[in-house]
Write a structure and sequence with these properties.
The complex is a heterodimer. Chain A is α+β, with helices and mostly antiparallel strands. Chain A contains eleven helices and 14 strands. The longest helix of chain A has 21 residues. Helix content of chain B is about 50%, strand content about 0%. The radius of gyration of chain B is 12 Å and the shape is globular. Chain B starts with a helix and ends in a 7-residue tail after the last helix. Classes of the chains: A alpha+beta, B mainly alpha.
Chain lengths: ~300, ~90
Amino acid sequence: MTVSSQPALDGPRQRDPFLVELAERDLLVAGQAPGVDALGAPVERVVSRMHAEIGALRREQHGATLHFPPVLSRATLERSGYLEGFAHLAGSIHGFVGDDDAHAKLVDELSSGADWGHHQALSDAVLAPAVCYHVYPLLAGRLPPGGREVNAFSYCYRHEDTAEAGRLRAFRVEEFVCAGDRATCERWREEWLDRGSAYLRGLGLTVRRELAEDPFFGAARRLLGADQHRRRLKYELQVPLRGRWLAVSSYNLHDDHFGRRFAIRRDDGEVAETACVGFGLERIALALLAEHGLDLDAWPADLRGRLCR
Amino acid sequence: MHADTIGTAIRDVLREHGNVDSDALGEGDDLYLAGMTSFASVKVMLALEERFDVEFLDAMLNRSTFSTIGHISVALHELLDGDAQTV
């Protein structure tokens, strides 16, 4: 089925001209909620090939690679501190609680357009805001000498209001987590910055490296965002997307934040530090479309061979 | 404001917002090691600003400033002494 004959699907909120062009070719079609979009098969193929290629860049070829569902234990989210920093971005999952009377009220409220949320209660699961949150609980205990690296992959969800190309609310991240001592985490991140830059350049993209900060909620941004910036805890690799720069990969040091919260210990018994690196696969795919054109058959031959077959 | 008044106020704020037993801590003890989380340090920052009617300068907004009672005290003195007002 082609949906390009139904432009109404893209709706009035589709303001970005790049998004309109993508939708006309069925490459990225807007869903009914902002930032929750469908990928056309050729773009999905690019994403899945990059998933395999980036996964193969890891240092420890023998280490674990884990594919997680988009859903995370609520207890893990609570333990991670995510709600203290990013309550506005968390997507919680609720379920109906009540008897037949309450259910009848819910249906009445639904049909009259009233708020039915008060019948819902928090469940034991949330939407994963980042892939690495799946990993930290698995690292609890004592690490081997030299630390550990884990490769993980899943959909993530961020509760953002967006109509901007490249800012999806549901997206896939190829992620790597390192746990060990400070020097190990710093060296590991630096190696990944080089490896990530080389990979993106190999896709024909111009890459720039920028210091960044996480979008903390409220007043926390003043202190924690500035501190992150000053202490160079977060770098992004950015690539061009139609006249602006789009962050497609991030490189983070966490101090001992997750080591403490998830009881991760180095081989000498001290609290471990952690670092993570994530590649936003849909974002890289969009940057490739912007760079090489919306006709994937006209992409450079080596990229077609790697990503389009 | 006297140094001991400021010191007492810092300990009050840390007890209430910093999640630490501030009376048991020395001027140089690491508050993060004593159990203050990143989020608690933000609450401490806001409570101190309200209590002293000051605003921490951008250059002070880092983990180090809020890592010990002594460092917090130095930053507050700088703000209260007025020479920071012209920055």
